[in-house]
Amino acid sequence: MIRKMDDFMTKQALNLEYSITGLGEPILIMHGGHSSCTEEWGYRELTSRGYSVITPSRPGYGKTSKELGANMITACEAYLELLDDLKITQVHVIAISAGGPSGIHFASRYPRRVRSLTLQSAVTHDWLTPGDRIYRVSQILFRPPIEKYVWQMTRFVNHLFPDYLFGKLLSSFSKLQPREVWPQISGNDKEQFKRMIDRQRSGHGFMIDLTQTSHVRRSDLSAIRCPTLIMHSVNDASVLVEHAYYAQHHIPNAKLSLLDIWGHLIWIGKGSAEMQHQLLEFLDMVGQVYICT
Hints:
The chain is an alpha/beta fold.
């Protein structure tokens, strides 16, 4: 894949890092937690189909200013400024995991700029709260500057004992038992997982995510008017499938695709090819309708 990376200065003189991969009809990716504009999940399939993938590093991730994470409105205004600078009038939006609230807010706030919305394993309402053990642990492990050393150690283990690390992290991604997951994972899947770990950092971004994932209101969901596809694994342990049901209930005419995939990372493992097929079919259908109208 050919990826162009650049920085954009917003009207507030804040930095927004972004990447563009491929040529064609534009897709705006709201990446998940611990990620950035270097994300790769599903990109090859999208660019091979003739789509261009635009990925801003969300506030606090990569080189994007953490100040853009003051609230969802500030962040969404920055994404809009970027699209204006690139002279892009409409985009498909794909929002992944903790990037779900960003995609929901952008689609509800700028309906004329969004051709379609796809939520993949996405957070759609209250997620981790101060009462949750994972929230409290995350406040320790993923807070700057500690997160830098946590990821260094994780990558060290990842290179020496990748299967061990994958096995240790299974329960955070899947509700299935390890003996049920391993037969669904190929050598290529494990290589993609290893590459994911190598590119992950939390920066200030994950702390911002923890405060903002609870900012999605029912009115934000009900204001979405574009065609919407919700894709979620029934075995997801990171973001429970209830988030998908919630979004379907409140987004008008949203289509729900429940996936029998091993867990949160729906881009790898048995069933991931069918997921990609459904996504591309949805995007192509929306594009054909747009051309006809």
